[in-house]
Amino acid sequence: MSDAYPEYIEEFSIEISDFNLIGSTAHIPLPETIPKCNNRIINIQNNDDWYFGWCVLGALHPVKVHPERNPHRLYGDFVEELNIEDIPIPVPVSTPVYKKFEENNPEISLCVYKWHNQNKCLNFRYVTERRGDEYKQINLLVITEDDRSHYCIIKDLHKLVYNHSKHKGRKYLCRYCLHRPQMPVKNRSVKAFYNHKCMQPNPYRIFWDLEMLTEKLAPEEKAKLTHTERLQMHKPCGYCYVVVHMDSSLNYEIMSHDLYRGPDALERFITKIEEKLANIQEDLSAPAEMIMAPGDLKAYNEVTECWICKGPFLKLAQEIVQKLEEAKHNLLEIKEWETCIEKEHSKKKEAQKRY
User: What is the pLDDT averaged over residues 294-303?
Assistant: First the structure.
């Protein structure tokens, strides 16, 4: 009946259930600090927890028209290509998980980046160890919102970092360090090692350790400095050192050592080290006998390159060799003449020296 109405109402209640259209870890919009135009980021609009897999498949099988829509229809036929064994779904932001994914998929080289909202720049989250063109390169951007995370495809890394510098041309960056590679310059592109003295072993080495105690500064000590805030002072309390010697056979031997703890540790340590340095200098200044094994002289005469830098010896011109021979001959004549003078006119030589 159209004019019917209830006489009374026993109970009236409204029940509202929680409804989430895309799930707790599904699609997340890009941060506002990321350039909106021409950023070359594909943010797949998924409604499940398989956003990491959709991004990888989207990078492997690019679509020209609306690649962000309906990933089940666009990339569903390629799901079997990925091996996600022992990988949690949804994929967390975790380096061990990324490494496990690369182990399961040996043909993929994965790099994951994150966007720094405050500095408006791109930072690393995971960088692969696989380098080379034989791998399929996958660059992903991870964005977080509270406890949620989401992955996006970086289609062109160079355009995403277009605003990182004032240079408005195309930027060619390395995906492993995000720096612009420097092209080699002619005559300045070869790096060589020239500090050959560091390749020779040291005959003596001193290993030492100086221990400190921290003490709080008094108010009058803090007031001595105006531009620096001093909180503590390091006070030496002990030391230990070991002197190691190496012989001609490259055998190491501990020559001396000392361990001390006391209030005068610093003064005692300096005194001891100076004494050891004086003893080492005295030992190195004394002439030592050259020890040569059988065959060393023959090897010395036949060698054609330096044993330190491995470079060939310079071949002198014939004119220079002739001048060296003449100088050597003249030097021998002078020494022979001096020897004769000493034998025949020894008294005259002594008088000249006294004069």
Answer: 87
